[in-house]
Here is the input.
Amino acid sequence: MAVFNRVESPRLVEEAIYSEVVQAGDGWMRELKPGQVLRIVDLEGNQAADTLFFDAENPEDHYSAVATITGQSNIYLSTGSVLRAESGKALLTIVADTCGRHDTVGGSCSAQSNTVRYAHEKLSMHNCRDTFMLQLAGQDGVYTKRDLAPNINFFMNVPVTPEGGLKFDDGVSAPGCYVEMQSHGRTMVLISNCPQLNNPCNAYNPTPIQVLIWDN
Amino acid sequence: MANIWSKDIGPGGKWSGTIGKGKLIRLTALEAGANVSFQLYHAKDLTERYNMPDTLKAQYTAHLTRGNVLMSDNGRAMVSIVEDSLGWHDPLSGYTSRAKTDAKYGVTNYQELRNEWLRSGQENFAVELVRNGLSMRDMMPVVNFFSKIVVENNGDMKFVQGHCPAGATVTLRTELDLLVVLSNTPNPLDPSESYPSVPVRIEVLPAPPLHEDDYCLNYRSENRRAFENTWEYHTLLNA
Here is the structure.
């Protein structure tokens, strides 16, 4: 299930109650109310929107990549995927997707993981976990590094092979591709619009995304 | 080499403890079909923990075996897999919950079954995390030693039955001082209708010193850089 499940949304952009462009390398954090729908648009294509969720009623219950993929017995996310917290609670459901596949195994880049994956000299480069932590720093101490669980990479394609290999394939995304998810309860959303310059998946050129919210 | 310490963890059992760097941790499946869910924290900084995506991405793998290093979210080598009789351990499928355990194996309770009551991974980890000053907030993906999950081309995850024979072993070398938390509970994707957990032995042994020709150190250049980050930490700590 949940594989390349391309479904277009009936929602009209002009009816959205919120719209903002998040520039490459920037972060975004906002709470969704029950029933609200979040759309993330890959404006120029092949971008990675690194995204985490928290149960706003219980911020210690973070998004769980593993609870999400074992819940559907499939590692890819698309329309119909239920995004779960560590407790197993359903936080959101993907209700539309014109990209067709999203990754939740590959996690986010950090200054430290860049030293391991690329070179020690990469420590100073911008990275998603720094962006996440800068956003968390503005939340009055509710969140700390302990809350940074493995995330979703919307628009990324990170295939696992039957032989147990992990690959980074070029994107299945294109300019204007979007994903939409509906929140079951109050859900905090944390996005890092990835600034990774060492990975060919975005042609070494991070680009902006757009976030829109509808009331239902 | 004589072991320093040994304990058998029965079906449904759990354990946590601090194990210093430079030791070997040997896990042995005492019967066929074992699964032990394993979580690692840096004992001197519990906010530093095993990071599944960093580990898999750095080594371009979705399974773990000899040569692989389990890396922390701070880019350090935590343990190296120095011996492995199985060739495949599962880093993708997590641990069982109470709800899933009840749904799959039938509702069990202490009042009827006393200590035969079926445990869940979630409850086992919750107890041991709280006991160590942590909480489920600190729970991240685990390694399921002795289990094999194959991911098909369409993304479907399939549990491979019969993967783990009795006597299977895997040996880890500790590269940092570690808090180890483990739960001997079924793999969530194991389709068996009966609770399949079997006893697992954990032994701690002294590790020989790391040499420049070490297999795990040289497995990939990424592994060497993770070791270098660990060595840098120890250099500063002991300066």
Remarks:
- Chain B has a mean pLDDT of 97.
- Chain B has one domain: 5-237.
- The CA atoms of residues 159 and 191 of chain B lie 7 Å apart.
